[in-house]
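Narrative of activities, Objective 1.

The group set out to show that a structural description can be obtained from nothing but a protein's sequence at a throughput compatible with the screening campaign. Below is one input-output pair from the validation batch, recorded exactly as produced.
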Amino acid sequence: MAAQHDPIRKWRDEYARRVLNLDFKPLSDAPFRAAVEPIFERIVRTTHSPGVTFRDEALVKDGDDSYSLLLSQSTNIDVAHRGRDLRLRHGDATLLHLCEIGSVGSYDNLEFIAVIVPGPELAARRASVDAAVIQRVPRQSEALRLLSGYIRCLERSQFGASEEAAETIRRHIVDLVSLALTSRAALGESSLNAVAAARLNAAVNQIAKNFQNPGLNLVTVALSQGISPRYLQRLFETSGTTFTARVNQLRLQKAFELLTEARNDPRQISDIALQVGFSDISHFNRLFRSRFGDTPSGIRQQKRMALVMPSQAGDHPDVHQGPINPPRE
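Output recorded for this entry:
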């Protein structure tokens, strides 16, 4: 009965210690909250109210010999492990050995990402793994930034991937963790598959944020990553597309949404084309018709008529029968 009236004790007893093999101690009287969100297999994002997450002598008896790369998502996180204390700033990381006691905490609301890697897999890629435990990996590390970007892409994706694709992701994660623990230098145009995949994902993410900017181009994105435009274009080609095709795909998708989302949108089609990043209206019209099978004005008219006369659509010979052509991925 006591546990039912104590949310912290309930969470600890029923979830933290039983499922996560962790425990929790509050550091303030702030209302308790905690969330553990899986990202991909043994990668999780954890948030909780001020307090300490820890593994004690009883919990480390679970036999887990894995390592956890802890990526701070908070202003300050205090880590205690192997008799050493380390404060991480936002974006920093450190390696913990799960078979040893340790704690992660803050007097403020806390958020971190934990990437769990089996010991043998990490040892196969990096000699003297233990030397990297409880050492700061600074947020300026390019390898760490690539790993963080790769994880963000995993968070945004809905993976219905094959086992082969999942295995590729696993290898990329372990390789990027190993590089983050090893390399402080710029990675440049590395031929390592994990680096190439992380760079491509970073470029795709940058395009997704900026595709409505008419000045967005291959050179700008490549230089922001410290790589050549030729290298970046090769990365897109290996994925079966091009930089331009990816940008146009997002612009056309956005234009389709704008043309069909409002019943009485007063904007002209040329205004919508400019808004999504097209500066050549004729070019926009050609691409739109090729993608969706009708002109922008035709798609807009279909949507408006469907909203005005849904019950009469079957009797009207000029009304498009069936749904508007959906965007093709």
